[in-house]
Amino acid sequence: MLKQLNRADIDQLLATIAAEYQLQAPRRLNDGTRQLGAYKAAEVSLCGAPLQRKPTAAFFPQTGLLLTLNTDGSAKQPEAPQKPFALFGLDRFDLTAISFLDRFFSDPPADDIYLRRRQGALLVGLTGFVGIDRAFQPLSSGGCDIELIATGTGWLAAGNSETGKTLLQDFPDGDPKLLCDLQKKSLHCLPNLSKLEHAAELLRQDLVPDRFWQEIADRCILCTGCNFVCPTCSCFCVQDRQTSRGTERSRVWDSCQLDAFMREASGHNPLGTEALRTRRRIHHKLVADVVRWGELGCVGCGRCDRTCPTGIGIFAVVEELVKQFGDS
Fold it and tell me: Which terminal residue of the chain, N or C, has fewer Cβ atoms less than 10 Å from its own Cβ?
């Protein structure tokens, strides 16, 4: 299903979604960045810089309650959200990342806490001429219920699921030829992941010496931003907190850059140096995930590179790695 929308139609669509879902939409903050936040009609930003906070946080929040151990000895799991989530304004990278985490948390034994928040969620992509200064952003490869595509003169809306088609059914039909032209344009704007793949091959062949990881680690200030903005990072720790009602057990995002990440109760730490932890961060995305899932764990969103204050996001590290050892 393909429909043609104008800005008033988009506002109508958002209001309809907000009535049935916990809708999050892009908002422009005072510093000029755009972030997903609770829907407010007057604040929706349809174009500009990429969203920096990872959208997967809606389903895998930074701190998520697992269960409450009551004072009487009984246990209670958190209830499912009263309304399912709707995430509006996702780009190609965001949708790929959500698909990756869906696969991770659905793998047996399935993670019921994640799936409870993910259940019934509505994903709306935002592609086309929506970048900074209306720069063109490639269309998605699927993975969303609705894809809203800025054409430069208006908007196309593709309904990909039955829910998406129902939400779009009352709008006028769109031009399939225009969609085809934009899809062709996307082929020339897809992210170039060839260096990531080249680096992955060098790592698989063990052609990167320890000294390289020490050089990179010496520049790390342990801010953990690389992990906490990455939409495919899934590591967490578990903590208990005493309250007047009992004990709340929660999971909290963890960072593989921190010394305690794999430190054992005995004191032994298999990742006891920053160099080893830095190597693991890159190796996990480019090698371990490929072995387990058949695809890179990096979707190419660039969040870690935009966040890192010392220039060792994954693209920056891969650039140096290929430059130094690519001809080995």
Answer: C
